[in-house]
C-alpha cells in the first residue's frame, strides 16, 4: 500500500514550479468512488444513467489530469477567470490541472463525433473545509446534440426557433431526470433560474424544493456556438449539463457529512446495496477536539485562507472536521488584522488522544507562521 500510494502520488506531485497538489489530495485521486459498486455515489450515478438509457454513451474512466486547454480554453473560460487561479485549482504543471469539472471532457468527445453521452468523474477544487465542502467530489456531465443547420450569426442562432427547441428539450429532459431520481412522481417542485457559464448560452440552473428548502441541483445550458466551432461541429447544436453527485446523494440517502463518502468504515458501507436508495443510519460519532489558533495577518495582508485550510489538511488529513473563523478584527492603531480560527478535530474511525492533537496543533502553528508569514498570538 505505501508503495502504490507513492507511485500514484508521483503522477500528480511533480517537480514543477506551478505544482500545488498536496500529498493528501494526490492520495484521493484514483479512489474512483463512482466506479465502486454499492457505493452511494455509484448508486446515484447508475440511477441517472438508467434514465438516459442506451442512447447515451457512458464514459467514467477519463484521466483526471487534463490540460488547461481542455478544462478552460475549449470552454471559452478566459485566462483571468477566478476558477483558473492557483488559489482555486490544483495545477500539476503550468499547462495541466486536476480537472475542476467534468465539462473538461465535453470537447474531446464532441470532436471524436459523439453526439449523446454522459461522463462521470472525480473533480478537484481548493475549498474550505466543513460538512458539505471537500476538495474532491464527483460530477456527471451530460451532452446531447439534436439539431442540424447553418446560421449566419450568433444573434440569428440565439433568436431562432431551433435554439428554443434545444432549450426546451434540455429543460424537459432534466425535469424528467430529477423526477426519476427522486421517485416522487411529478410532485417534486422545481424551478428554473437563469445562470451564467462561459460555455453555454443561454445558461440555466435547476433547483428543487426539498424538505421546505430550495436546493440547487445542476447547471446547464445550450452549448455555446464557440465551443462547437472549436470542435468542428459548428453545423450542430445541442445542450449540456453538469451535476454534483455528492449533493444529490447526501439528500437522497440522508448522509449528513460529505467526508463519509471517503470513509472505509464498514458501518457505512454495509448500509448500501446497488440499486437501492435507503436512509443512512448514523452510527455513533467519536468525540470532537477543539483547538483555536489566532494570528496577525502579514503586513501586506497577503493571506489566502485556502492556503491555511490546506496546511491543516496536510498536517491532519481527515482528522480536521471543520475550520471556522470565529473572530476577526483590525487593530485601531497598527491597522493590522487579527484572525482567530477554531479547528475541530474528529476521527470518523476512533477516539483521538490529547497528545496527538496537541502535536498536530503545534505543528500547524509553527508551519502557519513559517509558510504563511502570519504572526502567532
Ligand atoms: N461545469 C459546470 C460547473 O461545474 C456545470 C455545467 C456543465 C454548466 C455543463 C453548464 C453546462 O459548475
Automatic annotation (TrEMBL):
Record domain Aminoacyl-transfer RNA synthetases class-II family profile: where: 44-282
Enzyme class: ligase
GO molecular function annotations of the record: ATP binding; phenylalanine-tRNA ligase activity; tRNA binding
EC number of the protein: 6.1.1.20
Catalytic activity field: tRNA(Phe) + L-phenylalanine + ATP = L-phenylalanyl-tRNA(Phe) + AMP + diphosphate + H(+)
One protein family per Pfam: tRNA-synt_2d
The keyword Ion transport is annotated on this UniProt entry: no
Keywords assigned by UniProt, alphabetized: Aminoacyl-tRNA synthetase, ATP-binding, Ligase, Mitochondrion, Nucleotide-binding, Protein biosynthesis, Transit peptide
GO annotation, biological process: phenylalanyl-tRNA aminoacylation
Chief location: mitochondrion
Keyword Acetylation included in the entry's annotation: no
Entry's localization field: Mitochondrion matrix
Secretion signal, residue range per the UniProt entry: none
Domain FDX-ACB residues, every copy: 284-377
One Gene Ontology cellular component: mitochondrial matrix
Function, in words: Is responsible for the charging of tRNA(Phe) with phenylalanine in mitochondrial translation.
Family per similarity comment: Belongs to the class-II aminoacyl-tRNA synthetase family.
Protein name (database record): phenylalanine--tRNA ligase
Taxonomic source organism: Chrysophaeum taylorii
Organism taxonomic ancestry: Eukaryota, Sar, Stramenopiles, Ochrophyta, Pelagophyceae
